[in-house]
Amino acid sequence: MKSISLFCLLLVCCCSFQLKKPAQTETYDVVVYGGTPGGIISAVAAAREGVRVLLIEPTKHVGGLNTSGIGTAESEHMIEETYSGLPLEFYERLGKHYGKSGPTFYFESHVAEKTFTDLLKEANVTVVYEAFVKSVQKKATVIQSVSLTNGRNVAGKVFIDATYEGDLMARAGVSHTHGRESREQYGESLAGVRFIDTPIEAAPYDDSGRLLPGFVERNTLTEGQASDRVMNYNFRLMMSTKSDRRPFPKPALYKPERYLLLTRLLKNHPETTLKDIIDLYSWTYPKGKFETNNKQKAVISLGHFGGNVDYPEADYTRRDAIYQDHKAWTLGLMYYLANDPSVPETLRTETSGYGLSADEFTDNENFPYYLYVREARRMIGAYVQTQKDILQERTKPDAICLGSHWIDSHHVQRVAVSKTQFVNEGRIWEPITQPYELSYRIITPKATECTNLLVPVCASSSHVGFCSLRVESTWMQLGNSAGIAAAMAIKQKKNVQDLAYNALKTALEKKGVILSIDHQTWNGTKDVTK
């Protein structure tokens, strides 16, 4: 009797397995992957053109770095008059929140998230959270659908990859790269390995003479050579001196030995202050609230050198490990400064006067949702933007918006130059006083590879070209144009590469997008050195 019951149970299980239906495919007109600022603007712009839009966000929150600690439109190093269209509306909405009659270019993360979600809701954009693209189904050059890690399948007519990593693009078989080209590849004077900074007096070896983690030897590098490494990453902590601040927690993987360089520095320079170690920005935040960043010339700062080497092409599991390692580095640094007995008492007291801001990232222990991925993959598309497109050949026959940020690369790696010195390598800081036009072709793949995909964030550019593109306000401009182009391609039943530029130009201008550097006289004399 027992064996019969077991047989029946197995039979039921087998039947249930056989009858299980595959996940149904949901269909939308435009599918945007990545709820970054560029992705949100893409989705809203497309939806306002009357098409059905789905936005897929891998985390629990939309807004990317603008809702994870970057509270600026980068107007200190851009020409404000180049902001236009839907991105300008976003900044105007922020201004209204803060009681201003015009746009504001400085804002708090939670305010930015509320503004982004309002835009999405008003445009009737459907948002799916906590889902990654698992695979892409293509027929010839057309993406048919994507499978998500939450088990859902989504079909679309046009797809937009607005992630910082370009995972949809890569899974669709589109050519891409990462790292730095040599100076010779595109004839760029700013390209490749760069030793432009003064060596720092700090021994890059441990007491046994072994190279410290995160360092490379100088004899392995040549000025101007190509490199597959990308800019260092860090978290943009929001810190506070208010009474409700959250003390810096001790991370589970706390290792004070990671900060050996700092221990040595503080022993020799006990007068060191917190602002010598990390950048603190007060912008126009409420009193006692600060945005933070990696300090370029510090011996040790928020940037975790060497921690992101394999990030651009890593799988999701490895990326999560890199995220956690950066988090442990960041919280460990702040805990060390506030508590370690080797830290001078004045610095410990100063650091303890700060903590994590209580009104930000409230469901994540006041820690940012996104790691600051300054660059990962870059598409190799129909046109590659390089240094000359920013500084010399500034007009384009198919312009879709303007760029104006300085060419800005944070350091890439730490290089031991002697037993007692190291240098941070890879910095670019090239001023721009005039805007330049961005070509539609930098967001379109090669037509032989994919004909219904647009890529406004991991856009087609060299490393040098990307170093001017890589700010949220510019990605939002590209996203705005991508959303409008996607809707137009659907309505005209055309490949994204086959849109008539004059029609696209008219549609963009109708939405208030500034396309030409001859639009007005630019404020090229603006003081951007602050």
Mean pLDDT: 93
Give the low-confidence spans: 1-20, 524-530
* CATH fold annotation of the largest domain: FAD/NAD(P)-binding domain
Main β-sheet: number of strands, strand sense, barrel status? 7 strands, mixed
Radius of gyration, whole Å: 24 Å
Q: Whole-Å distance between the termini?
A: 85 Å
**CATH class placement of the largest domain:** Alpha Beta
CATH superfamily annotation of the largest domain: FAD/NAD(P)-binding domain
Number of strands: 21
- Roughly what percent helix? 25-40%
Strand content: 15-25%
How many structural domains in the coordinates?
A: 2
Shape: globular
Structural class: alpha/beta
Per CATH, the architecture of the largest domain is 3-Layer(bba) Sandwich
The total count of helices amounts to 13
This entry's quaternary arrangement is single chain
Organism: Spirosoma aureum
Protein name: FAD-dependent oxidoreductase
Keywords: 4Fe-4S, Iron, Iron-sulfur, Metal-binding, Oxidoreductase
GO molecular function, one term: oxidoreductase activity
